[in-house]
Specification:
Layout lengths: L1 H13 L3 E4 L1 H11 L1 H22 L4 E9 L5 E3 L4 E3 L3 E12 L1 H68 L5 H36 L6 E4 L3 H4 L2 H8 L9 H23 L3 E13 L12 E8 L5 H69 L5 H36 L2
Parallel strand pairs: 1-6
Antiparallel strand pairs: 2-5, 3-4, 5-7, 7-8
């Protein structure tokens, strides 16, 4: 949080439409402002409210009432005796407590729901941070692609200018200059397409950060700052603890919830014990003798046992048990699946690192080949076709290189998600 406290004033100093982020700052800002995360926080509040709702059902329920009655002078005729029905007002306070097993089980279910909401919130935070990291790297890699293409374009334009000058003095064919011009035009088109792709990446990043579409995002870290192969190698050596995985933790809580549903179903038609106390006060609005048969205090208890629902209850319990068994099977399958996934992600990351090392060397070789062919072409030893082919090979090598960078990032993020690191 302190990163944002100090960085936000810096944003205001540069431009109201420009913000600067390191990767950590961008992730923290996204977590702070993302609306999906806000909804996950609301789910926690709802789960907490449901828990208190279950607790409240165990507490005494108190109600008060008052009434006024006037028989308009009527007198009850009891033969030799007449009793006046005088106007009166009553005041009543009732306290009741009803307890059954379903209420206790519901409290446990509310606890499980709260834990699941907490896990979902943590998982959502992690997903948002990972999405920001992917987009951050994608922007950096795309910018690196544009930089490499501009370098190639500069070299190709130079060769085209040399060729066109040779054509003008009659020592070269126009077709050679035309071939290089097509190569220049193709490269310019590729750069424009890549620039549009970069803007799409930034738009996606703006969505994750909840920024307006006209805000300019400046990334303060480069690929070399963030791509640490030593850290990646340490990640490969990290032991997989399945209990740290968010999906597995949610599934375990869901399995426990299915187990609780068995008890809840069993207690739905179970006995209910109720205890109540009632206080009554009466005020007569006349001095005439009258009759009051309502006691001021009354205490009672009630036991309610549902009958003739055992067949229905048995079927419901059996259904809940089968659902629980099914959930246990899913949990066991998930354990196996996650372990297999861990092995696969390790393989993917190792392969991505190896591919990156190879493609990095390939770019160096392709660059040297292109520079060598370009020099030969300047001295008339190589043809324009040789230049075109070497330029195409260089672009392909550079494309494979930046793609290998993304593969490392994606493989690393996937493994970190599984390990919850």
């Amino acid at each position: 949080m302190w990163l944002l406290v100090f960085s936000l004033p810096l944003f205001a100093q540069t431009s109201p439409k420009q913000v600067s982020f390191s990767l950590a700052e961008a992730q923290e800002y996204a977590v702070e402002h993302n609306r999906t995360l806000a909804n996950a926080s609301i789910d926690i509040q709802k789960a907490q409210a449901n828990k208190w709702k279950s607790i409240a059902s165990l507490l005494p329920q108190v109600s008060a009432s008052s009434s006024y009655s006037n028989s308009l002078g009527y007198k009850m005729d009891l033969g030799p005796m007449k009793i006046s029905m005088t106007p009166y007002m009553t005041f009543n306070i009732s306290t009741t407590v009803g307890l059954n097993g379903a209420q206790i089980v519901s409290l446990g279910i509310a606890d499980i729901s709260r834990r699941m909401a907490d896990i979902t919130l943590e998982k959502t935070e992690r997903q948002i941070a990972d999405q920001v990291e992917t987009l951050y790297f994608s922007a950096l890699v795309t910018e690196e692609t544009i930089r490499l293409l501009n370098e190639n374009l500069k070299s190709m334009r130079k060769l085209h200018d040399i060729t066109q000058n040779s054509v003008d003095v009659g020592v070269a064919e126009q077709t050679d200059a035309d071939q290089l011009q097509v190569q220049v035009a193709t490269m310019e088109s590729t750069i424009k397409t890549t620039e549009r792709s970069l803007e799409m990446v930034y738009n996606s990043l703006r969505l994750q950060l909840c920024l307006e579409d006209d805000v300019d995002i400046v990334l303060t870290q480069g690929i070399d700052d963030l791509l640490n192969l030593r850290t990646t190698s340490d990640l490969l050596a990290t032991e997989f603890d399945i209990n740290n995985n968010y999906d597995y933790k949610l599934l375990k809580e869901s399995t426990e919830l299915a187990r609780k549903q068995i008890a809840l179903t069993g207690w739905t038609n179970g006995p209910t014990v109720s205890v109540y106390h009632q206080y009554n006060a009466r005020h007569n609005f006349s001095d005439e003798a009258t009759m009051n048969m309502t006691p001021p205090n009354m205490l009672g208890a009630q036991l309610n046992i549902p009958l003739f629902a055992f067949g229905k209850n048995y079927a419901a319990i059996k259904d809940a048990r089968l659902a629980y068994k099914k959930q246990l099977n899913t949990l066991e399958d998930t354990e196996l699946s996650l372990n297999v996934q861990h092995n696969q992600l390790l393989y993917n990351l190792r392969s991505a690192i190896e591919k990156y090392e190879i493609q990095k060397q390939n770019v160096d070789v392709a660059k040297r080949v292109f520079d060598n062919v370009a020099k030969k072409y300047e001295y008339g030893v190589a043809s324009s076709l040789d230049v075109t082919n070497s330029g195409t090979n260089l672009i392909a090598a550079q494309s494979n290189y930046v793609q290998s960078l993304l593969e490392i990032v994606n493989a690393q993020i996937s493994l970190e998600q599984l390990l919850n690191k």
